[in-house]
Amino acid sequence: MMLWTAQEAQQATGGALRGDWSVNGVSIDTRTLAPGDLFVALKAARDGHDFVVQALKNGAGAALVSRVPDGVAADAPLLIVPDVQAGLEALGRAARARTNARVVAVTGSVGKTSTKEMLATMLQDQGKTHAAVASYNNHWGVPLTLARMPRDTEFAVIEVGMNHPGEIAPLAQQARPHVAMVTTVAAVHLEAFDDIDGIAREKAAILSGLEPGGVAVLNADIETAPTLAAVAKDGGVSTHWFGTCSETHKLLSVEAQGDSTRAEVLIDGQAHELTIQSLGAHFAMNALGALACVAALGADLDRAVASLALWSPVKGRGARLELPWKGGVLTVLDDSYNANPTSVGAALSVLAAAPTRGRKIAVLGDMKELGPDEVAMHQALARHEAVPHIDQIFGVGPLMRALDDALADGKRGTSWQNASDAISALPAQLEPGDTLLIKGSLSVGLGKLVDALRDMSDAPATFKNNHP
C-alpha cells in the first residue's frame, strides 16, 4: 500500500518538491532500504546526504534532503527541507494525525523493548498493528516509527527512550498515546541525573503526551512510585497500577516450569493464567503491565493472554539459543544488548533458575552510564541472591574487575579487558550441557561473542521456543 504521495509529504513538511512520486516505506539506511522507500538523509555518525546517490540507485522512491548532493540527477525525485530531522518529525506528526489508531507508548529503565514486543504480539491478533522495530526509541527512532505508520493502522506501539533530561516529553508529544506505560525506574544513565528520582520524573514525562482522557500504566512495586504518582496527579492523568502491590492489576504468583515461566495475575479483578516462553519473573511483570495496557486500550484480554503464549525474547534481549557443541548442546542466554544493575540482577536470577545438566556460567560486560557510584554498583553484584546458584562468573571490561575482586575464589572466572579477548579464550572452557548467560552494555560488544559461539558450534543454532 502506498504510504506517502509527494503532495502529502510536501504538505506535511512544507518542503520543496522535485518530481511527482509516491513511496511505500521510509528508510534511513541504504543497507536495509527497500525499493520504493523514501530515503531520509539524516546527519548522525555520517551525513546521510553522502548516500543519496546510492539510495536512488538502490531503488529509493525519493529522498528527503536539505540540499541536493553532488551526483544527484536534475530530475531525481526529492523533497527538499531546511532541516532533515525536523522534516522527519513533521512526517511523523502527520502520520499520527491521519490515523485512527489506538496508540500505546512504552518507556522505562528496563524492559521497554520486550514489553513493546509483547504488546505487538498481543495486539496484532486483534487488528492491524504497527510497532517500532528493534529499539527505535530516540530522537530519530520515534519519528521514523511514526512516519512509517500506515494510515489504516488500528493499534500502534511506540517505544520511547532517553539518555539525558528533557528527551522524553518531545517524543511523547509526537506519539500522542492513548495509553502510556512506565515499565520500571532503575539506576540507569545516572551520570546525567542527580538521583533516581530525577530519572523517575524524566520517565513520567511520557504522560505529557497523552491524549485527552488518556491512561497511565505505572509500576506499583518500585521505590519511585510516589514520584510517578505525583506527576500523574499534577497532570490530571488517570492511573492504572500494576505489580504485586496493586489491587487491580496484580501479580499473584510466578514460577519457572522447565524452559517457561507461568504466572497467575489479576486484571481488573479477573484472574488469568499466563504462559511465557522464556524464563524470568521480570518477563511476567512486564507481561502484567502489557496486559494492563491492553485492557486500557479496550482490546480483548482473553485473546491477548492466548497470543502472549506465542511471544519469546528477541536476539540480544534474553533469547535462548541451543548450540550443538562438542557432541552435545550448549545453551546460550543472549542478553547482550544492554545492562544495568536491575537488568543484570534479573538475568542472573534467570540463569540460577535455568534447568541444566551442566554448569551455570555468566559472562558479564561493563554496565555503562552509572555515574560516580559505578564501581560500587559492579561490586554489589557479587552479593546478589542468585550468585550462590551460579558456578562461575567471567567479567569483560575494566569496570567488571570490581565484581571480579568481590567474588569468592570459587566463583571467579577470568576477567578480560574486552570482548575480543573473551572470544579468543572462552570457547575452549565451555562444555556440553553448560548454560551460558551473556550480558553487558551494548558498547562492550558481547553480541560478537554470541555470534562467535554460533559460528564455532557444530551446526547452526536453533532458537528455543521462538514463534514463527
TrEMBL record:
It comes from the Bacteria. It is found in: Cytoplasm. Residues 23-85 form the Mur ligase N-terminal catalytic domain. Its EC number is 6.3.2.10. Its main location: cytoplasm. Involved in cell wall formation. Catalyzes the final step in the synthesis of UDP-N-acetylmuramoyl-pentapeptide, the precursor of murein. This is UDP-N-acetylmuramoyl-tripeptide--D-alanyl-D-alanine ligase. The gene is murF.
